[in-house]
Amino acid sequence: MKAIAEKQITNIGNSVLHKLNGLGDFTNFTFRTIFWTFKPPYRFKLLFDQIYFMGNKSVFIIFLTSSFTGAVFAFQIYLGFKAINADSFIGPIVTIALAKELAPVLSGLVVAGRCGAAMAAQIGSMKVTEQIDALEVMGINGYQYLAVPRILGAMISMPLLSALFLLVGYTGSWLIGVKVLMIDEILYTQKISDFMNLGMIAEGLIKATVFGYLIGIIGTYHGFKVTGGAEGVGKGTNMAVVWGMITVLVVDFFLTSFLAKIL
């Protein structure tokens, strides 16, 4: 029994040390990317390529997701509010929910699944084929060349995608509310200006920017940590998607609590 207990304690200790070591590696990676962000040369072409990949290439899936999100959200609220004749509040409630929560969070989940995986897979493939080592031999820093453009690209693309999500999502809710459920158009739109303010939109855009940074740093980190060939690339890609999504959901709670006090 004593030997079993000692073995369990040893396993727990090893697990804790492994997690702490991973946290230290991630912190070191974060500081390295911050340092190389401000060091020349500034690779604007790579940055624009990443903005195009993360932003423009994600427009269709954001458009599709946001339109149906706004539509189903308006329909569900209508089912609850029609019993108390509060149809006029559907418009502002849907718009506020989209602006503060649904637009940045769902955009973050979409980008984490699509772009976070791509970051980890691209960098991981370069890692296992020793292309990153080749860059270092040529005097090109891998963090600056591979990680920084992707992180900045995600930070710039995410607020734009979130704003698009808000616009299309509201349009979808308006179509369902006014054209399908036959809610008076003036009632649907009139109260939005009474309940909404720029702070709510700013809150969503700030969240989207933070989520973009987190998705970028997690995706590139797991790409750089890939080992073991194709199997390692698959594991790194999976970890980038899982941790990217989890981080977006967890950080959203703390950001909501913080921004509610300052906006």
Domains, number = 1
Which H/E pattern describes the elements?
HHHHHHHHHH
Instruction: Give the termini separation.
Output: 58 Å
Strand segment tally: 0
The major β-sheet equals: none
With helices defined by DSSP (H or I, 4 residues minimum), what is the helix count? 10
Structure description:
The protein has 263 residues and is an all-alpha fold. It has one domain. The protein contains ten helices and no strands. α4 (90-128) packs parallel to α9.
Protein topology:
Elements: H1 2-37, H2 44-54, H3 59-81, H4 90-128, H5 131-137, H6 142-180, H7 185-190, H8 192-195, H9 198-224, H10 229-262
Helix pairs in contact: 1-6, 2-6, 3-4, 3-6, 4-6, 4-9, 4-10, 6-9, 9-10
What would a concise description of this structure say?
This protein is mainly alpha-helical and 263 residues long. The protein has ten helices and no strands.
Looking at this protein, list some descriptive labels:
mainly alpha, globular, 263 residues
